[in-house]
Specification:
The protein is of the alpha+beta class and about 350 residues long. The protein folds into 2 domains: about 10-70 and about 200-325, no CATH class; about 75-195, Tumour Suppressor Smad4, CATH 2.60.200. The protein contains 4 helices and 17 strands. The chain has helices at about 15-40, 45-65, 115-120, 190-195; strands at about 75-80, 85-90, 95-100, 110-115, 130-135, 145, 150, 155, 165, 170-175, 180-185, 210-225, 230-245, 250, 265-270, 280-285, 295-300. It has a 6-stranded antiparallel beta sheet, with no helix packed on it. Strands 3-2-4-5-8 form a 5-stranded mixed beta sheet. The protein is elongated and about 65 Å long. The two termini are about 30 Å apart.
Length: about 350
C-alpha cells in the first residue's frame, strides 16, 4: 500500500507521463542493442564473463555462510510479543515466555513500562522503557548482556545498538514491530541450523544481468510496505528502475533501508513464486545508480543475486512483502529457489 496522500512523481502531469513513455520507447531499443553487444561471442566465456561467474559464486558462498551462521536466520527459535508489566523467561511452566528444556527454569524477567503497551496517550513503542530484572536467586553466571555478566537495569531496544542478552547458545533481542515490542529468540544449536545442507540456486545466467534506466522521483516519496505480521513499514522510495526482460519493458521500485548506506533494496515477486521460488517473493540488493539517486542514469540489476527473505527459512521472522507495483507478470528464472526445510 501507498500513503493515499502521496502520488508517484511521474504521474503528476500528462507532460511527465509523456516523458516516461518516450523514455520507455527509446530505452527498449537501447537495451536490446546493449544486451546483444554484451553477449559472449562464442561458446567459450570471455574473461569478463569468467570474472562475473567467479564473483557470483563467491557471493553465493557468502550468502550461505550468512544464512547458516551462529546468529543467522536458521537460528530463529521464537518470536514472543511482550505484554505490559512483567514478562518472565525460562523453561519452567510458570513462565510467560517458555525456553527449551535445557535452559534454566527461571532465567530473567523483562518489565515493560510506558509506551503503547500501557499508556493511553502514548503513540508507539518508541516511548517504552524496558528493564531487565533478575529472578529469585539472581542471574545465572553465564547469562550475559552485550557480552558482559548480566546486571539489572534498562536494555536498549531495536536498532543498531539494541542489547543482546545471551545464555550459552540462546540469545535474545527486543524489537519494535508496529506499536508493540517483541522478543526475538535465537538458538545457535537449533536443528534447522545443524542440519543445514545448503541453498538451492538456479544456474548462473547472464540474460538476467541487466542494465536498467534509473528514473528518480522528485521529490522522493515514502512507500508503505506491508509485512507478514500485518504491520506497515514506511521507507523512502527514491525512484524506479526501468529495464527490458523476457521481451518486455518492466519497472521496479526500490526502497532504502539505511539512509547512511550505499545500497537499494528491491522487494519483488515474479511468476516463479507459483512453482520454483518462495511464494512470498524475493529480495535484491544493489548498488546505487551511476549518477546518484537524484539524477537519471543507469543501474545494474543482477537477478542472479535474488535471495529468499528470512520467512523462507523460519516461521519466526517478520518479513516485508512485495508492494503491488513490484509484482511482475513474468518468470525470473534466476537466483535462489525455494528452501527445503
Amino acid at each position: 500500500m501507498r500513503d493515499p496522500n502521496l502520488k508517484r512523481p511521474y504521474k503528476v502531469s500528462s507532460h511527465a507521463a509523456a516523458i516516461l513513455c518516450a523514455v520507455a520507447l527509446a530505452f527498449s531499443a537501447q537495451v536490446a542493442r546493449t544486451q546483444a553487444a554484451s553477449a559472449p561471442a562464442s561458446s567459450s566465456p570471455t574473461l569478463e564473463m569468467q570474472s562475473w561467474q567467479k564473483n557470483l559464486a563467491g557471493w553465493r558462498t557468502q550468502r550461505e555462510m550468512q544464512v547458516s551462521a551462529r546468529d543467522g536466520w536458521l537460528t530463529l527459535a521464537g518470536l514472543e510479543w511482550l505484554k505490559p508489566g512483567v514478562n518472565t523467561i525460562g523453561s519452567a511452566a510458570d513462565n510467560s515466555i517458555h525456553l527449551p528444556q535445557q535452559a534454566p527454569a527461571h532465567l530473567a524477567m523483562l518489565t515493560i513500562m510506558g509506551g503503547a503497551h500501557t499508556a493511553a496517550n502514548a503513540k508507539s513503542a518508541e516511548d517504552s522503557v524496558v528493564q531487565l530484572l533478575s529472578p529469585a536467586g539472581g542471574f545465572q553466571p553465564d547469562f550475559t548482556v552485550d557480552g558482559k555478566p548480566a546486571r539489572e537495569g534498562s536494555v536498549q531496544v531495536d536498532g543498531a545498538n539494541a542489547s543482546t542478552m545471551a545464555w550459552r547458545g540462546l540469545s535474545f533481542a527486543i524489537l519494535k514491530r508496529g506499536d508493540r515490542l517483541v522478543l526475538r529468540i535465537k538458538d545457535a544449536d537449533s536443528v534447522m541450523r545443524t542440519s543445514f545442507k545448503g541453498l538451492n540456486w538456479y544456474a548462473p545466467n547472464p540474460v538476467y544481468l541487466v542494465t536498467a534506466r534509473w528514473i528518480p522521483f522528485k521529490p522522493a516519496i515514502i512507500e508503505e510496505i506491508p509485512t507478514v505480521i500485518g504491520t506497515m513499514l514506511k521507507l523512502p522510495a527514491p525512484g524506479l528502475a526501468m529495464f527490458m526482460l523476457n521481451g518486455k519493458i518492466m519497472q521496479l521500485e526500490p526502497v532504502i533501508e539505511d539512509p547512511a548506506g550505499k545500497t537499494l533494496f528491491f522487494i519483488l515477486r515474479d511468476d516463479t513464486s507459483k512453482t520454483t521460488t518462495y511464494g512470498g517473493g524475493r529480495f535484491l540488493h544493489t548498488g546505487l545508480p551511476d549518477r546518484g539517486l537524484n539524477e537519471p542514469g543507469n543501474l545494474v540489476l543482477d537477478f542472479n543475486q535474488l535471495e529468499n527473505p528470512p520467512c523462507a527459512y523460519t516461521n519466526f521472522a517478520t518479513c516485508p512483502l512485495p508492494p503491488k507495483q513490484n509484482q511482475l507478470e513474468t518468470e525470473i528464472r534466476a537466483g535462489e529457489k525455494r528452501y527445503e526445510r
